[in-house]
Amino acid sequence: MKRTLISVLAMGLLVAMLLGLAIGCQSSGGSVESKDIETSTGGQQENAGQEAQQIEQKEPVRIVTSVVGGKDPDENKLFEQEVKRLTGIQIEIIKPPSTEYDQKVATTLAGGEKVDLIYTGATQFEKLFPQGFFEPLTDRIKNSEVLSDPNIIDPKEWDRITREDGNIYAVFNKDEGGTLPIVRWDWMQKLKLEPPQTLDEYYEVLKAFAEQDPDGNGEKDTYGLTLSKLYDIQPFMGVYGLIGKHAQDDNGQWYIPWATDQAIPVYEWLAKLYKEGILDPNFATNTTANERELFMNDKVGMMVYWAAWVGMFNDQVRSEEPNTTFEAKGIEPPKGPNGEALLMAGEDGLWVIPKNSTNKDLAFKFLEFWHTEEGNILGTLGILDNDYKLENGKYVLTEVGKSHAMDHGAPYPKSLKWVNPIGTPLNFEGANQIVKKYAKPQTARADTADAMSIVDKYGIKAVLGELSAQDAVKAMRSELKSKGYIDIE
């Protein structure tokens, strides 16, 4: 039976549901089912139906976002009403089309349009920050009982996004998780394979997936590893201590670690996998949806992907085939000679308040709310009586809530106090712990995306055998230097 992915919208929602189950969750393992949900957040239950004192406003807090809010214009209105009920603040959600979002944010700021809160990724933040659009939030954060609470947000996180002038210009949206190697654990067990610890051991496991008929159909129609271009190779680069995107050396010179001579053995290793038919031959053109299809439909034994998908893969396949042996599981990355290993932490999603906002106080009040328990419930479960109900001390997802998969903008809250009342999906907690142990954030500059496209271009040629790894890395550096993306060649 071919396992098909649900629609793109529903899939994205389901991913987010699994992300929301991580921080502080103490429930036992097992697949998550849609069911009545017991919760220990008694205070939240008691206050859930109460309305906050209303605040006099001349105009709503205008929020430009691609992630927070409802799933359609009608639910955006319900979301606005729920925020007002819970905080007394009237907001207006503005959701540009996802394909135009970055451009909309840039033109909104450049044109001086009056908005009060903007959601942006770290890469776009870096592009916009030099233009001086953002209000410093340092004092507001220090004086906030919520955001300055080390039991809610680790102070080291604020240190990480403090700029050279000593100011903080953004507030986190959620915890972004990270990626790691995910394997068909049922194949590992069937072939009696142990979790690999080194790059050589990874090779042997991937070779077995490709050659030992793990799907049991008597045909040689499986691959060991699938990729989407070279976006997913951080675990293998980590063997040599190489982090993705930009980095600075001890002299402050910028370079791309994946374009150094130290990366050559990784490109050679991947080229070996490709030549021997172990690597999915379509890796250079794959989308992540292609990767997921292969993994769920018994065509590939390993992919590198977000930890949240470990549980999602299990729930998705088992919901379609209750008697399946399918089991996805995250495993530790390969280690280098000195035990080195690196995974990729997700890029920060950030809230900024434009300097020209006329509603700065209430905009910041919304950000404080977003990191409270009530805000976490809204960002995950959603809207009371639309997405969930409280019945006899239990959270009960409505049919609408089930379809929204507990994602209303922050499915994985940043708060260290957060305990998701649903529980933990199969094998997700283990994957999450691996990410926490090995993942590091990558450094994004305004030109990082363009720089990495050059790395991709020549790296793919090396894997395909069109260039030697040495020549590919040399070509990367030459073009990166000529375009000003690195300081040293």
TrEMBL record:
<keyword id="KW-0564">Palmitate</keyword>
<feature type="compositionally biased region" description="Low complexity">
    <location>
        <begin position="42"/>
        <end position="55"/>
    </location>
</feature>
<feature type="region of interest" description="Disordered">
    <location>
        <begin position="32"/>
        <end position="56"/>
    </location>
</feature>
<keyword id="KW-0472">Membrane</keyword>
<dbReference type="Pfam" id="PF01547">
    <property type="entry name" value="SBP_bac_1"/>
</dbReference>
<keyword id="KW-0449">Lipoprotein</keyword>
<keyword id="KW-0732">Signal</keyword>
<dbReference type="InterPro" id="IPR050490">
    <property type="entry name" value="Bact_solute-bd_prot1"/>
</dbReference>
<protein>
    <submittedName>
        <fullName>Extracellular solute-binding protein family 1</fullName>
    </submittedName>
</protein>
<keyword id="KW-1003">Cell membrane</keyword>
<dbReference type="InterPro" id="IPR006059">
    <property type="entry name" value="SBP"/>
</dbReference>
